[in-house]
């Protein structure tokens, strides 16, 4: 069963201890969240009720955040993926709040990360083509002051997964 434990990292984080059945359930759900409870129970060698209780506890513990359908960008005509490296000379709270809001309002930003090092942020932007990226770029710099932007066009997606490696120890 999942059991909460504290992690001494200096921040308020919770780690969940997972046993072998929890790990099997999570692996199955990461591959196909549309599996029925019967199918999951059969594959992990347990009955439905205990499996349902484990899934419920994993949701309550925040291990399972949400279930989504993963769409094919090509099928939707979103053929251009850009990785956008952003450097800023602004580091105050007001700028950061405006920047965060600008990113949240733009559905073409499918990932955004604040980085350590020379680059402050990296965005993953999925759009139809270079013109669509330029519209995105012009809109963003019109809304938020940015010192330097470098856009890198992905020529080929080699690996893409939403599946996380599930640690044996729960850490």
Structure description:
- Helices cover 35% and strands 20% of the residues.
- By secondary structure, it is an alpha+beta fold.
- The strands form two sheets. The protein has a four-stranded antiparallel β-sheet. Strands 1-2 form a two-stranded antiparallel sheet.
- α1 (20-31) packs across α2 (37-44).
- One of its GO terms (biological process) is regulation of DNA-templated transcription.
- GO terms for molecular function: sequence-specific DNA binding.
- Keywords: DNA-binding, Transcription, Transcription regulation.
- This is Lrp/AsnC family transcriptional regulator.
Ordered list of secondary-structure elements with their pairings:
Blueprint: E1 3-6, E2 14-17, H1 20-31, H2 37-44, H3 48-60, E3 80-87, H4 93-104, E4 109-114, E5 121-127, H5 130-143, E6 148-153
Antiparallel strand pairs: 1-2, 3-5, 3-6, 4-5
Helix pairs in contact: 1-2
According to CATH, the fold-level topology of the largest domain is Alpha-Beta Plaits
**The level-1 CATH class of the largest domain:** Alpha Beta
Q: How many domain units?
A: 2
* Radius of gyration (Å): 20 Å
What is the gist of this entry?
35% of the residues lie in helices and 20% in strands. By secondary structure, it is an alpha+beta fold. Keywords: DNA-binding, Transcription, Transcription regulation.
Quick tags:
elongated; 171 residues; Alpha-Beta Plaits; Arc Repressor Mutant, subunit A; alpha+beta; 4-stranded antiparallel sheet; two-stranded antiparallel sheet; single chain
